[in-house]
Design a protein that fits this description.
The structure is a single chain. This protein has 211 residues and is an alpha+beta fold. It is built from nine helices and five strands; from the N terminus they run αααββαβββααααα. The protein has a five-stranded mixed beta sheet with strand order 2-1-5-3-4, sandwiched between helices. A hairpin with a 2-residue loop joins strand 1 and strand 2. The longest helix is centred in the first third of the chain and has 14 residues. The chain is elongated, with a radius of gyration of 20 Å. About 17% of the residues have low confidence. Bound molecules: FE2/S2 (inorganic) cluster (2 copies). The site of one FE2/S2 (inorganic) cluster (FES) has 11 residues, from loops.
Length: 211
């Protein structure tokens, strides 16, 4: 469910200095030789020797996550979700489908909901990343978090961080949203336990009070 635009951020090649044409040319040269091993080597060597090109190994990256500036080293292929969960121990966003269909990995990028499994970590550089951990704390839950607790709007809870994150962005933009609007707005998030009735009540309450 989500108003998720799941925006496509700017081409990471701008930041990474990667050239799709150059990459394809490299593939062409390589595959004209004798196989995968010979194909990969020239590409990697070319990338490593070109100024401004990142990878294929790790490179230094700065992320702002829940208001904290963090430096880490990642390979250019690492998704934002994997960087958060595996490198920064920010495990609120969940890895379920890992292909942009379920919404369990939803985070806010500059306030807009996105699927963290479908964005590279490098694409989040110089942007504000907010996860469910950054929306509130146990002693100061935001309106959506509170409403989820009050309406017992979860079963296994695996989808919940993504729903809460997407819903928090939604109610901020759509105070007093109708049931239909909430259903459409959160259409990018799925709950396999089918806890939709409770979640709808929770988001509806939060929308009245703001989040
Ligand atoms: S894990 Fe990202 S959309 Fe399902
Ligand atoms: S509560 Fe289990 S997937 Fe939603």
């Amino acid at each position: 469910m989500s108003e998720h635009k799941h925006e496509r951020p700017p081409d990471p090649s701008d930041r990474a200095g990667l050239s799709r044409r150059g990459f394809l040319k490299g593939i062409g040269v390589g595959t004209a030789a004798t196989g995968l091993a010979t194909a990969v080597k020239p590409i990697a060597e070319a990338a490593a020797s070109e100024p401004g090109v990142l990878g294929p190994g790790e490179f230094p990256l700065s992320l702002n996550v829940n208001g904290r500036n963090i430096k880490l080293n990642v390979e250019p292929r690492v998704t934002l979700l994997d960087a958060l969960r595996n490198r920064l121990d920010v495990t609120g966003p969940k890895k379920v489908c890992d292909r942009g269909t379920c919404g369990a990995c939803t985070v806010l990028l500059d306030g807009e909901p996105v699927y963290a499994c479908s964005i590279l970590a490098v694409e989040a550089e110089d942007r504000q990343v907010t996860t469910v951990e950054g929306l509130g704390a146990p002693d100061r839950l935001n309106a959506v978090q509170k409403a989820f607790v009050e309406h017992d709007a979860q079963q296994c809870g695996f989808c919940t961080p993504g729903f809460v994150t997407a819903a928090s962005a939604f109610v901020r933009k759509h105070p007093n949203a109708s049931t239909d609007e909430i259903c459409r707005g959160l259409g990018g998030n799925l709950c396999r336990c089918g806890t939709y009735a409770g979640m709808l009540l929770a988001v509806s309450d939060a929308a009245k009070g703001g989040a």
